[in-house]
Design brief:
The protein is an alpha/beta fold. It has helices spanning about 10-40, 50-75, 125-130, and strands spanning about 5-10, 75, 90-95, 105-110, 120, 140-145, 145-159. It has a five-stranded mixed beta sheet. It is elongated and about 70 Å long.
């Protein structure tokens, strides 16, 4: 797996496609209407509403381009398809920190679904990369902000 490769699950792809459609149809129309209404206020050089609407338009167009690029470049995998006996996308991995003996679970997700606060880590993160394609009983090392973490994989299931 290349570091530049983008992997999305089928459900994340669907979510991104729905967001893109919403932005192109609903949000663009709302923004166009806001610009039109702001122009009616007169002098554009000192028209706050016009400048705010144009700024919103730029942000909206940027997000649309970002989603289009993501969807164009992504390799799509079925949710949980990388299951089996090894850690893959959609795996719920139970680990033990070998230094502190703390145990917790990580869910391995695509990069756009990552939510580290809720233990949903990207396959491309340092810990995610260390866990990918490993099996129960393996000990992995991963760089973390405080140094290097050593985890033993003590459980594995697939979502």
């Amino acid at each position: 797996m290349s570091h530049d490769e983008i992997i999305l699950t089928a459900s994340t792809k669907k979510q991104k496609e729905e967001e893109l459609l919403y932005l192109k149809t609903v949000k663009r129309a709302e923004n166009t209407e806001a610009i039109k209404k702001a122009r009616e206020y007169g002098d554009l050089s000192e028209n706050f509403e016009y400048h705010a609407a144009k700024q919103s338009q730029a942000i909206l167009n940027g997000r649309i381009k970002e989603l289009e690029a993501l969807l164009d470049r992504a390799r799509i995998v079925e949710d949980g398809s990388e299951g089996g006996l090894t850690v893959g996308l959609g795996s719920i991995v139970e680990v033990r920190d070998l230094e502190t003996e703390d145990e917790w679970e990580y869910t391995i997700v695509d990069a756009s679904s990552a939510d580290p606060i809720n233990d949903r880590i990207s396959y491309a993160s340092p810990v995610g990369q260390a866990l990918m394609r490993r099996v129960v009983g393996d000990v992995v090392e991963a760089p973390i902000p405080d140094g290097t973490a050593r985890y033993e994989i003590i459980g594995l299931r697939h979502s």
